Amino acid sequence: MNKMPFYKRFIYNQKLAPYVFTAPFVITFLVFFLYPVISSIIMTFQNILPGRVEFIGLENYRRLNDPIFFKALGLNLRYTLWTLAILIPVPMLLAVLLNNKHMRAKNFFRSTLFIPALTSVVVAGTIFRLMYGELPGALMNQIIGLVGLKPIKWLRLADYAMIPLLSLAVWRWTGVNILYFLAGLQNIPPEMYEAANIDGANPWQVFRHLILPMLKPTTIYVITISIYGGMAMFTESYMLWGGNRSPNNIGTTIVGYLYRKGFEENNMGYGNTIGVVLLLIVLVVNLLQLLANGFFRKEKDA
Amino acid sequence: MRRLLTLVLAIAMLLSLMMVAPASAAEPTKLEFWTFQALHVEFYEKMAEIWNERNPDRQIELVVTSLGYDDMHNKLLIALQSGTGAPDFVDIEIGKYANYLMGETQLVPLNRVVEPELDNIVRSRVDIYAKDGNYYGICFHVGASVTYYNQEILEAAGVDVNSIITWDDFAEAGKVVLEKTGVPMATVEANDPWFFLQTLSQQGSDLLTPEGEPNVNSDAMKKALGFYQQMVKDGTAMVAPGGGHHAEEYYGFMNFGGAASVTMPFWYMGRFTDYMPDLKGKMLVMPNPVFEVGQPRSVGLGGTGTSVTNQSQHQDLAVDFLGFAKLSEEGNLKIWEIMGFDPIRKSLWGSEELKKPNKFIDYFANFPFDALIEVQDEIPAIVVSESLPKTMTAVRTSIMTRVFEGMEDIDTVLAEEQALLEQTPN
Asked: Among A290-299, B100-109, B123-132, B238-247, which is the least confidently predicted range?
């Protein structure tokens, strides 16, 4: 055994093998994730300028008592709630329809609904900005003109700003969520539908008592990533307002504000603080949501 | 696409340059240059060509990277912060400039080339890029604020442009224009301050105090905003379609005679020639009105300081080339010919060279430099400090839109925004 050359001993070593195989992931994780996160947390206690970095204790956290930060937080929260309210039920229903064996032209609908997800947000955002232009000739103003409404300055008035943001999100993410739900639906064994039929369940009862509970793991997953996506939304706002400067901050998101403070105004310490606080908020919201949905309980019961 | 084309062209030009260069010439030194404005590339390429003809032993080869505005400024910030990856020299927009002077300045002082020329140029255009007696950047232009009038509309309303001396005259003329032609006299911006800042400097005020602290809750600010808000109430002014004078919506609106005038810096001429072709021959370039006769009529606005970074391996060469490109007479002439900017070398303004026809001379109904020469001693600079980026952000995102779009009470808006600015760190 000891006569084997070093490299062979290394290769055939059963104790080392698992570490060798996981090394690429572990190293990437340490270098590109853990290190940035830790250095980011350290930077929240610093004031950072080229050649002059100083510790300022909790000053950056004290600065968070900032009306624009709360405004941005409010926008993200409302946006997240709206996307949850629309982007869970609608794609679920569409997926159930697409999965129904009586549905015609399934593949056609499946691909048309999914195509928007392949479009870059940058392109889509630019097109949506033009659609929601303020002049009477812009598409949306023409449409509301058909029912006799006056042109609206969609992107410059706080009351309307959520509409372009949400329609962009719905247009883009419906297809992706349908895909998740379709995958979930494949996991429901056909026998269960048969059993439900034999018991005389009507379509609503099948949906309510069979499909909905069976889709629960998928739904929880989609809710979790939607909360993350909603709270971290940035590109959509950036593209719709053609830069990170919406009038009166009606479209400023938390990440947009982080970007403004960190990069546009050269205050890395405060920018990092906003980032760390956003991470905490998303973690807490998601943990509460998972707790409420019985995500942790389920494992124990099983 | 245009950027790609520029790049291909640039490479082609460089290749052809290398081909014709005599074999004995020194190996060209590569200088890396970043800009956020594709328009500037053509200028620097041209200047490098002239430089190489004059200095056979100090040949340079420009390696140009043209990026988006935010993209370039952010990349530069990170490169200077981390100490690696910055170009030899770079264009930095004035609104962002203060970010690069914070902490230990990572730019190279240009005093060696700037100081000998101080008397020939508009001094404030290098002062705005200075810190502790060191000049770190040189501007492209003065950016003198002027008012562009649509002659056709004024004539239809029977208003004589030379009779508009004060802002009161301007507002009165606006009422006549509105009554006779139905279009507003002026437009205001909800997302930019360029149309507006001369009304502060005319009253000897600024967005910042002379010490560089935010000063938006000033009497001058109240008076100036109040003047424009009243015009909006009267219908003689309106918020520019699209929110500002750089919106596609506005270009179309103005091009078809949507408003009788627009107050913008001199560099706005290029927007007329490029985006409002139908106004050719109809626009007059005039000095701004004032609140009281005797106040300075203009102010230098906007600007791009070109700077050399301390990461450059060829700092001396970069500084010399920069001085040649932006301070010499040839350089300033090219700045006007290629980009239509008002060059900082004021001795040039009256020269015959400037009168040679180009697309800007052809476009305007009068000779644009007449307005500039008239106000040449009335062009102060705005105060630049580390508080400028956040103050500009407040003006762009909050103050203008609250006052002109929301028509909110000016005193309340300014008090709130000032308090907010004071508690926000730089």
From this structure: A290-299
Type of residue at A160: Y
Reading the block at residue B125, the tokens are: 């255009």
CB-based contacts of A264: which residues, under 8 Å, 6+ apart? A244, B70, B73, B74, B96, B99, B389, B393
* Domains along chain A with CATH numbers: 63-301 (1.10.3720.10)
Set of chain B residues whose Cβ sits within 8 Å of the Cβ of A50? 80-81, 83, 102-106
Query: CA A31, A37, A39: angle at the middle one, nearest 5?
Result: 90
Q: CB-CB: which of A51, A243, A267 is closest to B70?
A: A243
* Separation of alpha carbons A291 and B12, rounded Å: 63
As beta bridge partners, residue B89 has B33, B308
First vs last Cα of chain A: how many Å apart? 46
* Surface of B (321-360) touching A: CB under 8 A: none
Which CATH number does B145-299+366-423 carry? 3.40.190.10
Angstrom distance (rounded) from CA B339 to CA B261: 22
Distance CA B90, CA B73 (A): 10
- Burial degree of A32 (CB within 10 A; 0-12, 13-18, 19+): exposed
Tokens of B113: 């080339």
CB-CB neighbors (< 8 A) of A39 in chain B = none
Quick check: B405 and A63 CB within 8 A?
Answer: no
CA distance A275 to A267: 13
Residue B168 token pair: 């009161």
Write down the pLDDT at residue B8.
67
Q: A49: burial class by Cβ within 10 Å (0-12, 13-18, 19+)? A: buried
- Res B23: pLDDT: 44
The confidence score (pLDDT) of residue B21 equals 47
Residue B215 in this model has a pLDDT that exceeds 80: yes
Above pLDDT 90, what percent of chain B?
Answer: 62
Cβ within 8 Å, pair B405-A247:
yes
Could you give phi then psi for residue B315, rounded to 5 degrees? -60, -40
- When CB atoms are compared, the residue of B73, B83, B103 closest to A52 is B103
Structure tokens that stand for B260 in this block: 């009788």
B308 and B107 Cβ atoms separated by less than 8 Å: yes
Is A266 in Cβ contact with B102 (below 8 Å)?
yes
pLDDT exceeds 60 at position B22: no
Asked if the Cβ–Cβ distance from A265 to B106 is below 8 Å, we say no
Mean pLDDT over the full length of chain B: 89
Subunit contact B397:A268, Cβ cutoff 8 A: no
Residues 80-139, chain A: which have Cβ within 8 Å of B?
Answer: 133-135
Fold designation for B2-142+302-348? D-Maltodextrin-Binding Protein; domain 2 (3.40.190)
> Could you give the residue range(s) of every CATH 3.40.190.10 domain in chain B?
2-142+302-348, 145-299+366-423
Chain A: closest CA distance from residue B244 (Å): 11
Helix (H, G, I), strand (E, B) or coil at B354: helix
What lies within 8 Å, CB to CB, of B321 at 6+ separation is B31, B47, B48, B51, B60, B89
CA atoms within a 13 Å half-sphere pointing along the CA-CB vector of A86: 18
Burial of B352 (0-12, 13-18, 19+ CB in 10 A): exposed
Q: Within an 8 Å CB–CB cutoff, is residue B106 touching chain A?
A: yes
> In angstroms, rounded to a whole number, what is the distance separating the alpha carbons of residues B190 and B402?
8
Q: Which residues contact B79 (CB under 8 A, 6 or more apart)?
A: B85, B86, B309, B311
Using alpha carbons, select from A76, A123, A134, A65 the residue that is nearest to residue A251: A76
